[in-house]
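[job 0417] fold request received: Histidine kinase/HSP90-like ATPase domain-containing protein
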Amino acid sequence: MLLLSEAFTNATLYASDGPVHLAASLTEGSLRIEVVDPGGRCDPALTPLPPDDAEGGRGLALLDLIAKEWGWERLTDRRVRVWFTLLW
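[job 0417] inference complete; emitting structure tokens
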């Protein structure tokens, strides 16, 4: 839930106005979540962690620390897909 919340929040904060789509696929032993947004002016970037008292700036760092794998891609229509995989 934490990683889904972070990916979805980033999509709503940094993308242009428009719908945000969520997809999930479950296979034996793994769960893949994809969040697709309309795209924005900048690409997702893993940055250094902010100061301890900062209210944001940890979303992609959490994906990097917790997910088995994650990534992002800009689609041909300029939308952005952020995805991550969890194992169980």
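[job 0417] notes: The mean pLDDT is 92. The first strand starts at residue 21 and ends at 27.
[job 0417] exit 0
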